[in-house]
Amino acid sequence: MSTTTTKQPCQCLRTKNPYGATPQNADSWLPGIHMATSYWCLRTMGPAGPDDHYVHLARCMPGRACYEQREE
Question: For residues 2 and 19, what is the distance between their CA atoms, to the nearest angstrom?
Answer without folding.
Answer: 24
